[in-house]
Amino acid sequence: MSLGLLPDQIRPLTDDERFRFRCHPGLSCFTECCRELELALHPYDVLRLARCLGITTAAFLDRYALVEQGADDLFPRVFLAMVNDGRASCPFVSTQGCLVYEDRPAPCRTYPLGRGASLQEGGTVAIFHVLLTEPHCRGFAEATEQDVALWTAGQGLAPYHRMNDLLLRLVQHPQTKAGWRPTASQCQHYLSTLYDLDRFRGKLPATTPDHDQLASNDEQLLACAVDYLIREFHGD
Predict the structure, then answer these.
(1) Does residue 83 contact residue 93 with C-beta atoms inside 8 Å?
(2) pTM over the 0.90 mark
(3) What residue spans define the domains of the chain?
Protein backbone atom coordinates (compact mmCIF):
# COMPACT_ATOMS: atom_id res chain seq x y z
CA MET A 1 0.00 0.00 0.00
CA SER A 2 2.54 2.60 1.10
CA LEU A 3 5.63 3.43 -0.89
CA GLY A 4 9.10 2.49 0.29
CA LEU A 5 8.36 -0.09 3.01
CA LEU A 6 11.52 -1.95 4.03
CA PRO A 7 11.61 -5.70 4.67
CA ASP A 8 12.06 -5.22 8.44
CA GLN A 9 8.86 -3.13 8.48
CA ILE A 10 6.77 -6.07 7.26
CA ARG A 11 6.46 -9.22 9.36
CA PRO A 12 4.10 -12.21 9.36
CA LEU A 13 1.27 -12.07 11.87
CA THR A 14 -0.57 -15.10 13.23
CA ASP A 15 -4.32 -14.90 13.73
CA ASP A 16 -4.08 -15.07 17.52
CA GLU A 17 -1.13 -12.69 17.87
CA ARG A 18 -1.96 -9.39 19.54
CA PHE A 19 -0.53 -6.02 18.56
CA ARG A 20 -1.02 -2.47 19.78
CA PHE A 21 -2.62 -0.05 17.39
CA ARG A 22 -5.21 2.70 17.32
CA CYS A 23 -5.65 5.51 14.79
CA HIS A 24 -7.46 8.72 15.74
CA PRO A 25 -7.36 12.48 14.94
CA GLY A 26 -5.28 13.21 18.04
CA LEU A 27 -2.20 11.55 16.57
CA SER A 28 0.45 13.79 15.02
CA CYS A 29 0.61 11.47 12.02
CA PHE A 30 -3.17 11.51 11.38
CA THR A 31 -3.83 11.10 7.60
CA GLU A 32 -0.11 10.66 6.81
CA CYS A 33 -0.91 7.13 5.63
CA CYS A 34 -3.25 8.72 3.05
CA ARG A 35 -0.33 10.24 1.17
CA GLU A 36 2.57 8.99 -0.95
CA LEU A 37 1.04 5.58 -1.50
CA GLU A 38 -0.03 3.23 -4.25
CA LEU A 39 -3.61 2.25 -3.52
CA ALA A 40 -4.75 -0.70 -5.62
CA LEU A 41 -8.52 -1.00 -6.00
CA HIS A 42 -10.56 -4.18 -6.31
CA PRO A 43 -13.86 -4.14 -8.23
CA TYR A 44 -15.81 -4.01 -4.95
CA ASP A 45 -13.79 -0.96 -3.84
CA VAL A 46 -14.75 0.87 -7.05
CA LEU A 47 -18.37 -0.15 -6.62
CA ARG A 48 -18.60 1.11 -3.04
CA LEU A 49 -16.82 4.37 -3.81
CA ALA A 50 -18.99 5.06 -6.85
CA ARG A 51 -22.14 4.50 -4.80
CA CYS A 52 -20.80 6.73 -2.02
CA LEU A 53 -20.09 9.55 -4.49
CA GLY A 54 -23.40 9.11 -6.32
CA ILE A 55 -21.77 8.49 -9.70
CA THR A 56 -21.59 5.56 -12.10
CA THR A 57 -18.72 3.10 -12.05
CA ALA A 58 -17.68 4.42 -15.46
CA ALA A 59 -17.54 7.98 -14.12
CA PHE A 60 -15.48 6.85 -11.15
CA LEU A 61 -12.96 5.11 -13.39
CA ASP A 62 -12.72 8.19 -15.59
CA ARG A 63 -12.23 10.67 -12.74
CA TYR A 64 -10.43 8.79 -10.01
CA ALA A 65 -8.63 5.74 -11.40
CA LEU A 66 -5.43 4.85 -13.18
CA VAL A 67 -5.08 1.56 -15.06
CA GLU A 68 -1.68 -0.08 -15.40
CA GLN A 69 -0.44 -3.48 -16.52
CA GLY A 70 3.12 -4.57 -15.95
CA ALA A 71 4.87 -7.35 -17.81
CA ASP A 72 4.22 -9.79 -14.96
CA ASP A 73 0.58 -8.79 -14.36
CA LEU A 74 -2.05 -11.30 -15.45
CA PHE A 75 -4.74 -8.65 -15.80
CA PRO A 76 -4.66 -4.83 -15.70
CA ARG A 77 -4.48 -3.30 -12.25
CA VAL A 78 -6.58 -0.35 -11.14
CA PHE A 79 -5.16 2.26 -8.77
CA LEU A 80 -6.66 5.31 -7.12
CA ALA A 81 -5.38 8.44 -8.88
CA MET A 82 -3.64 10.64 -6.33
CA VAL A 83 -3.75 14.42 -6.21
CA ASN A 84 -0.76 16.26 -7.71
CA ASP A 85 -0.05 18.28 -4.56
CA GLY A 86 3.61 17.33 -4.12
CA ARG A 87 2.65 14.61 -1.64
CA ALA A 88 0.57 12.30 -3.83
CA SER A 89 -2.41 12.69 -1.48
CA CYS A 90 -5.59 10.68 -1.71
CA PRO A 91 -8.35 12.73 -3.41
CA PHE A 92 -10.68 11.91 -0.52
CA VAL A 93 -8.50 12.96 2.42
CA SER A 94 -9.11 16.19 4.35
CA THR A 95 -7.68 17.72 7.52
CA GLN A 96 -10.62 16.15 9.36
CA GLY A 97 -9.92 12.72 7.93
CA CYS A 98 -11.43 10.54 5.22
CA LEU A 99 -14.34 12.02 3.28
CA VAL A 100 -15.55 8.57 2.15
CA TYR A 101 -14.85 6.76 5.41
CA GLU A 102 -17.94 4.53 5.42
CA ASP A 103 -17.04 3.26 1.92
CA ARG A 104 -13.23 3.46 2.06
CA PRO A 105 -11.35 0.76 0.12
CA ALA A 106 -10.26 -2.54 1.63
CA PRO A 107 -6.53 -1.61 1.83
CA CYS A 108 -7.41 1.44 3.94
CA ARG A 109 -9.58 -0.66 6.24
CA THR A 110 -6.99 -3.42 6.54
CA TYR A 111 -4.02 -1.14 7.39
CA PRO A 112 -1.80 -1.62 9.42
CA LEU A 113 -2.32 -5.20 8.34
CA GLY A 114 -1.72 -6.67 4.93
CA ARG A 115 -3.81 -9.65 3.80
CA GLY A 116 -3.00 -12.33 1.24
CA ALA A 117 -5.30 -15.06 -0.03
CA SER A 118 -4.75 -18.13 -2.21
CA LEU A 119 -7.15 -20.72 -3.58
CA GLN A 120 -6.42 -24.27 -2.46
CA GLU A 121 -7.46 -27.61 -3.92
CA GLY A 122 -11.08 -28.26 -3.08
CA GLY A 123 -11.95 -24.58 -3.27
CA THR A 124 -10.85 -23.56 0.22
CA VAL A 125 -9.10 -20.21 0.66
CA ALA A 126 -5.84 -19.94 2.60
CA ILE A 127 -5.34 -16.57 4.30
CA PHE A 128 -2.20 -14.99 5.72
CA HIS A 129 -1.58 -11.60 7.31
CA VAL A 130 1.42 -9.33 7.81
CA LEU A 131 1.88 -6.33 10.07
CA LEU A 132 3.12 -3.12 8.42
CA THR A 133 5.04 -0.98 10.90
CA GLU A 134 5.81 2.29 9.16
CA PRO A 135 8.19 4.54 11.13
CA HIS A 136 5.97 7.63 10.87
CA CYS A 137 2.92 5.91 12.39
CA ARG A 138 2.21 6.81 16.02
CA GLY A 139 -0.74 4.42 16.21
CA PHE A 140 1.52 1.62 17.39
CA ALA A 141 2.31 3.58 20.59
CA GLU A 142 -1.35 3.48 21.64
CA ALA A 143 -2.43 1.14 24.44
CA THR A 144 -5.31 -0.47 22.54
CA GLU A 145 -4.61 -4.12 21.77
CA GLN A 146 -5.88 -5.79 18.60
CA ASP A 147 -5.71 -9.12 16.88
CA VAL A 148 -6.68 -10.06 13.31
CA ALA A 149 -10.28 -10.94 14.20
CA LEU A 150 -10.85 -7.80 16.29
CA TRP A 151 -9.37 -5.55 13.65
CA THR A 152 -11.26 -7.21 10.79
CA ALA A 153 -14.58 -6.92 12.60
CA GLY A 154 -13.98 -3.36 13.76
CA GLN A 155 -13.10 -2.17 10.26
CA GLY A 156 -16.13 -3.76 8.58
CA LEU A 157 -13.96 -5.91 6.33
CA ALA A 158 -16.21 -8.98 6.03
CA PRO A 159 -18.04 -7.94 2.81
CA TYR A 160 -14.79 -6.72 1.24
CA HIS A 161 -13.02 -10.01 1.91
CA ARG A 162 -16.02 -11.99 0.72
CA MET A 163 -16.29 -10.13 -2.57
CA ASN A 164 -12.55 -9.90 -3.20
CA ASP A 165 -12.01 -13.60 -2.57
CA LEU A 166 -14.53 -14.38 -5.32
CA LEU A 167 -11.90 -13.20 -7.79
CA LEU A 168 -9.53 -16.01 -6.79
CA ARG A 169 -11.47 -18.48 -8.92
CA LEU A 170 -10.69 -16.30 -11.93
CA VAL A 171 -7.13 -15.08 -11.30
CA GLN A 172 -5.94 -18.42 -9.86
CA HIS A 173 -7.83 -20.63 -12.29
CA PRO A 174 -6.15 -24.02 -13.04
CA GLN A 175 -5.66 -23.03 -16.68
CA THR A 176 -3.84 -19.90 -15.53
CA LYS A 177 -1.58 -21.98 -13.31
CA ALA A 178 -0.91 -24.15 -16.38
CA GLY A 179 0.28 -21.13 -18.39
CA TRP A 180 -2.85 -19.51 -19.86
CA ARG A 181 -2.59 -15.75 -20.39
CA PRO A 182 -5.34 -13.38 -21.56
CA THR A 183 -5.23 -11.52 -24.85
CA ALA A 184 -5.38 -7.73 -24.99
CA SER A 185 -9.09 -7.86 -25.78
CA GLN A 186 -9.70 -10.23 -22.87
CA CYS A 187 -7.87 -7.84 -20.55
CA GLN A 188 -10.16 -5.04 -21.68
CA HIS A 189 -13.16 -7.32 -21.21
CA TYR A 190 -11.96 -8.04 -17.67
CA LEU A 191 -11.84 -4.32 -16.88
CA SER A 192 -15.16 -3.40 -18.45
CA THR A 193 -16.97 -6.31 -16.81
CA LEU A 194 -15.66 -6.26 -13.24
CA TYR A 195 -14.72 -2.61 -12.71
CA ASP A 196 -17.52 -0.98 -14.71
CA LEU A 197 -20.27 -3.04 -13.12
CA ASP A 198 -22.99 -0.58 -14.14
CA ARG A 199 -22.09 -1.26 -17.77
CA PHE A 200 -22.25 -5.00 -17.18
CA ARG A 201 -25.66 -4.62 -15.55
CA GLY A 202 -26.94 -2.77 -18.61
CA LYS A 203 -25.86 -5.63 -20.88
CA LEU A 204 -27.62 -8.39 -18.92
CA PRO A 205 -30.22 -10.10 -21.13
CA ALA A 206 -33.72 -10.02 -19.68
CA THR A 207 -33.68 -13.83 -19.85
CA THR A 208 -30.76 -14.05 -17.38
CA PRO A 209 -31.76 -16.18 -14.35
CA ASP A 210 -32.65 -13.96 -11.38
CA HIS A 211 -32.39 -10.91 -13.65
CA ASP A 212 -34.46 -8.62 -11.45
CA GLN A 213 -32.49 -9.53 -8.34
CA LEU A 214 -29.17 -9.03 -10.12
CA ALA A 215 -30.35 -5.66 -11.39
CA SER A 216 -30.87 -4.42 -7.84
CA ASN A 217 -28.16 -6.23 -5.83
CA ASP A 218 -24.59 -5.08 -6.47
CA GLU A 219 -22.90 -7.93 -4.61
CA GLN A 220 -24.84 -10.62 -6.45
CA LEU A 221 -24.15 -8.85 -9.72
CA LEU A 222 -20.41 -8.79 -9.04
CA ALA A 223 -20.47 -12.51 -8.25
CA CYS A 224 -22.38 -13.05 -11.51
CA ALA A 225 -19.73 -11.03 -13.40
CA VAL A 226 -16.94 -13.23 -12.03
CA ASP A 227 -18.79 -16.38 -13.08
CA TYR A 228 -19.43 -14.86 -16.51
CA LEU A 229 -15.73 -14.17 -17.10
CA ILE A 230 -14.72 -17.64 -15.98
CA ARG A 231 -17.10 -19.09 -18.55
CA GLU A 232 -15.91 -16.64 -21.23
CA PHE A 233 -12.20 -17.26 -20.65
CA HIS A 234 -12.13 -20.91 -19.58
CA GLY A 235 -15.44 -22.47 -20.58
CA ASP A 236 -16.26 -23.56 -17.01
Answers:
(1) no
(2) yes
(3) 7-156, 170-231
